[in-house]
Amino acid sequence: MDQVPKNRIVPCNNKSINPAGEYVVYWMVAHRRPSWNFSLQRAVEWAETLKKPLVIFEALRADYKWACDRFHRFVIEGMRDNWRRLEGSKALYYPYIELHVNAGKGLLSELARRACMVVTDNFPCFFLPRMLSAAARHVPVLVEKVDANGLLPMQEADQVFLRAFDFRRFLQKRIIPHLFTPPEPDPVAALSMQASPGMVSHLHERWAPAYSFLDDIVSCNLSRLPIDHSVPPAEAAGGFEQATATLRTFLSNSLSEYDALRNHPDDNATSGLSPYLHFGHISVHQIFQEVAQHEGWSPDRLAPQTAGKRAGWWGMSVGAEAFLDELITWRELGYNMCWRRQDYDAFESLPEWAKETLERHKFDTRTYLYSLAQLENAETHDELWNAAQNQLRREGKIHNYLRMLWGKNILAWTASPREALDVMIHLNNKYALDGRNPNSYTGIFWCLGRYDRPWGPERPVFGKVRYMSSRSAREKLRLSEFMEKYRS
Ligand SMILES: Cc1cc2nc3c(=O)[nH]c(=O)nc-3n(C[C@H](O)[C@H](O)[C@H](O)COP(=O)(O)OP(=O)(O)OC[C@H]3O[C@@H](n4cnc5c(N)ncnc54)[C@H](O)[C@@H]3O)c2cc1C
User: How is the chain split into domains, by residue range?
Assistant: First the structure.
């Protein structure tokens, strides 16, 4: 097994390893999968070095912002897949679901009291960085966080990229060695020490493992959990099994047409992978390997020039190049921002030109003004916007092209750009399965000018920020079936 690259690993405290500990803990918080996972691989590495068994601890809190039935169900389905996969392995899988706010408090510290050290995931967004820092202070042993987010380690770039073009050029120069050091598809297979349930059974009385929840997901009673029940589960099922099936369906049915059809809602030609990527149910490494295999690709097809061009560098089909540009350039651009800037979600983080133009136009008269409740309930004059919002509420997703339009219209219909930002963040993160992710902030802030340039003519409300209208979208896109389906 290859070693996890050093620039994917960050110590979270300066505590020592306890060689007398009984086991190594992998605290799975973001890369929620048993395969293609550098964090799990690092934990296995430590378990082998220290000649100890491995405990994989996956928990689900009840008190994070926007916690609801939709996200809980998706994560629990992922936990079920993980349990099934890990059940017969040498690792011990300990799933825990908080039934009351703060019920899980102290569990990690107790688990770590008998541990040699703890490995966890380095997800640079939402409440996770704060949670990890707090945990690392309380845990008595070394805590390491590992970055299994992207093809490029987040530490590889020491600057914040402000344009996709510059980041793409950087990727083209730096990504090649990383293509040859992917994580192991099955890291737990390298474990030699068998973990036993008895190692953690003293914790079960206070913090019962969630096996019964995972055993019967259909009837698992989410209504007794202290989370928002007004956002119901979506149709899409969570977990690495469904993630892999979704990827393979996309490769067989849509990849070849991705570039031509992806903007048309009726053609449904995108991958649908973003929720699985967000919850870590699938790895970008696995996706890349399967795309490359599907394309019969080998590295000798890479173009020698690294000019930052969107198409032609990989030497793959037009569809695959367009897909990889979204999956790698655009996705990892957001991770770069969140990793490097703590204010990634603040209005002040917009480029100067965007802040200046939006401020200058903030008192412009709005043709329509809607409250948060009207927007949330899709009660605007614009049928296309309402349909997109209905899709978000019902299914936890919005087609990408319409998502841009959705955000631009929120800018047009709220009292100020700062209010527009708050509304976009709230609605996106409350309903979208893939919300609360670096991509969420890429998309939302893009609507306000991030990663973009000034556009003319200068318009009311938008100023020099790029304008989009429902009228031109309706002229350009095939969306009659979409409109019919999400009319109400
Ligand atoms: C206002 C707004 C909010 C958004 N919020 C989110 C969000 O909360 N979570 C999220 O994952 N994406 C978000 N996006 C980006 C984009 O809409 C989704 O990533 C995409 O629609 C997901 O569908 P898919 O998996 O079928 O994408 P595909 O087209 O199949 O793309 C494959 C993958 O590439 C990445 N990707 C695709 N488009 C983008 C993009 N424009 N920016 C960054 N990464 C991209 C995603 O990880 C996606 O799963 C937002 C965009 C806008 C304009």
Answer: 1-148, 240-340, 347-485
